[in-house]
Design a protein that fits this description.
The complex is a heterodimer. By secondary structure, chain A is α+β, with helices and mostly antiparallel strands. In chain A, the strands form three sheets. Chain A has a five-stranded antiparallel sheet, with no helix packed on it. In chain A, strands 2-3 form a two-stranded antiparallel sheet. Chain A has helices at 2-11, 13-18, 96-104, 111-118, 139-143, and strands at residues 22-24, 29-32, 41-45, 50-56, 60-64, 69-73, 77-78, 90-91, 135-136. In chain B, a hairpin with a 3-residue loop joins strand 2 (109-112) and strand 3. The longest helix of chain B is centred in the first third of the chain and has 25 residues, at 42-66. The radius of gyration of chain B is 21 Å and the shape is globular. The chains are: A alpha+beta, B mainly alpha.
């Protein structure tokens, strides 16, 4: 009996190791009530937040944080902590892209319409296409792409 | 009845199998592998990432010696914006992704560690909308997110020096890494990306991540399948590099179709043809 318990403890080691803390890797998103992208959302999880895996399917994990629990795609989970963005994206209202979208679209005359026309209805509060106009691409970013080097 | 000797032998065997299984699991990814050698914290990951970007920059420069850049800064800016939107919805948004078009009629796309992505004029000319472009970029970003090249560099090392080189890169941090050791890794990685391909399992993994990420970003993920089907049935194009470094297209399409039907077919995403045509028409559609 005693030996059986000891053996059982050893056999359960891999299972115990799966219960260790993991980290959420993506940008902030909402957890889902079931493992489907269209499922109703629950509380949010933020980048780098610690979580524990309660259950998994092929692509999804049922997870628990200090504040919330819910379903999350497994591709966003790692045992390693996250780092901050290496370079901050400059967020602007007016930008190169915005100007070009205005020139391009005869049906679009102001910023509100641009957002309306390009916004995507997301179910989990992700960064949608409506943000495109607000990401400024610095000239030097693209100039780095030259055969002479990446300095 | 089991005697003590037998019992402890079984116990030892069990313990060894547990340890070995943990080792095998640990070798499944670049970061996991590192985590077995020391406790990884934010600073170490930042150092590793800086090294990864350095390696990626050098591979990108080598790719540009084989294929010239397409001289259209507006298009490259557009590609980069779409790439960053996809990246913001990926598991690895922290990198500064850069995307540029290659002046080549071959149907190809490449990504290097650290966030450098190239897509050929030939590939862009076969695309019908922004969703297809977004999916192609998501595929490349998935390779970067999953550390596919870095992982392959680490695990397939047969030369005695390579393992040490990678570990030196990892443990030494960015400041201690010599240009020579980086360039050894760069040569291997370049060969993987341009000639050998990564491996079929990783390509299928990137394909599935592509479907999730493009959907999360708001695009119609079936566009990815439509694009691959178009590549597959178009005969008068050069797709030899893609076929050499990836699994057979028919198999990928079949797997993706099944994945889409099971997981994503009820979600309606965007295609966005007008914006795509505006930015690509000058250089591509001629």
């Amino acid at each position: 009996m005693k030996r059986g318990i000891i053996l059982l403890l050893f056999l359960s080691l891999p299972l115990l190791s799966q219960a260790k803390e993991m980290y959420f890797q993506g940008n902030s998103i909402s957890l889902l009530t079931k493992p489907e992208l269209t499922a109703p959302t629950m509380g949010k999880i933020v980048r780098g937040e610690k979580l524990k895996i309660l259950n998994t399917t092929t692509h999804w994990a049922n997870i628990k944080t200090n504040k919330h629990s819910g379903w999350l795609l497994k591709i966003f989970i790692s045992e390693n902590p996250t780092i901050d963005n290496l370079v901050e994206h400059e967020i602007m209202t007016e930008s190169y892209m915005l100007e070009n979208f205005r020139i391009r679209a005869s049906s679009i005359s102001d910023e509100n319409n641009i957002n309306k026309n390009t916004a995507i209805k997301t179910t989990t509060g992700r960064i949608s296409l409506s943000k495109i106009e607000r990401i400024k691409i610095k000239d030097k970013t693209v100039k780095l792409f030259t055969p002479s080097g990446f300095k | 009845m089991m005697n003590n000797k037998k019992f402890y032998a079984i116990l030892l065997a069990t313990l060894l199998s547990v340890v070995l299984s943990q080792q095998i699991l640990a070798s499944q990814s670049f970061r996991d592998r590192i985590s077995k050698t020391r406790n990884i914290g934010t600073e170490e990951i930042k150092d590793d990432t800086i090294i990864e970007v350095k390696i990626g920059q050098k591979i990108a420069a080598k790719i540009l010696t084989k294929y010239p850049l397409l001289d259209n800064s507006d298009l490259n800016k557009y590609l980069t914006v779409i790439g960053r939107v996809i990246a913001a919805n990926s598991p690895r948004p922290e990198l500064l992704y850069r995307v540029a078009a290659l002046d080549s009629n071959e149907v190809i796309s490449y990504s290097t560690p650290g966030g450098y992505i190239f897509i050929s004029k030939g590939a862009l000319s076969l695309m019908k909308n922004e969703a297809e472009l977004a999916a192609m970029l998501a595929h490349e970003i998935s390779h970067i997110s999953h550390h596919h090249v870095m992982q392959k560099l680490n695990l397939q090392s047969s030369e005695a020096g390579t393992e040490a080189t990678i570990m030196q890169l990892i443990s030494g941090g960015a400041k201690d890494v010599s240009e020579l050791t980086i360039s050894n890794s760069v040569d291997q990685a370049e060969n993987l990306i341009l000639n050998l391909g990564i491996n079929h399992r990783h390509e299928f993994e990137a394909d599935q991540s592509t479907m999730w990420i493009t959907t999360i970003a708001g695009y119609d993920s079936s566009s990815y399948i439509n694009f691959l089907e178009r590549v597959n049935r178009t005969s008068n194009i050069n797709k030899s590099d893609m076929l050499r470094t990836h699994p057979p297209l028919a198999k990928r399409i079949q797997t993706l179709r099944s994945f889409y039907d099971r997981n994503l077919s009820t979600i309606k995403g965007e295609l966005i043809e007008e914006r795509f045509n505006f930015y690509t028409s000058k250089s591509i559609k001629n």
